[in-house]
Amino acid sequence: MTSGNGARRPGMDPRNGAEVSATTSIDQDHGNPLSPRADVEVARLRVRLRRMAAAAGRPVRTAADERAHADRRRSGELARMGRVGA
Q: How many other C-beta atoms can be found within 10 angstroms of the C-beta atom of residue 22?
């Protein structure tokens, strides 16, 4: 039998109070990325971000848009470094 806080102590298995590895403890604390619960949380976050972007009048970028933006920024930084001679 575990105490009421037994399930929340890091390094303890919430089912039986046995010690578990740090990796397992971290996975339990932050959710397994493959779990349906994590998928629901990600979907809710995306909806929230879309609403915030719409309220601010900003477009929502896709992952491809983000990658293209990062590539443009990196190429600009490299060009500036080339001009400066760093």
A: 9
Helix (H, G, I), strand (E, B) or coil at 59: coil
* CA distance to 34, 47, 63, per residue, from 40 (Å): 11, 11, 19
Q: Which pair of tokens denotes residue 53?
A: 């972007």
List, in order, residues 6 or more apart from 54 with CB less than 8 Å away: 60
| Contact predicate 10/23, CB 8 Å | no
Each residue's pLDDT tens digit, 16-46: 655 555 555 455 555 555 577 888 888 899 8
> Residue 70 has which token pair?
């990062």
CA distance 7 to 60: 39
Phi-psi category of residue 31: left, alpha or beta, with phi > 0 → left and psi -120 to 50 → alpha: left
Would you state the pLDDT for residue 1? Answer: 47
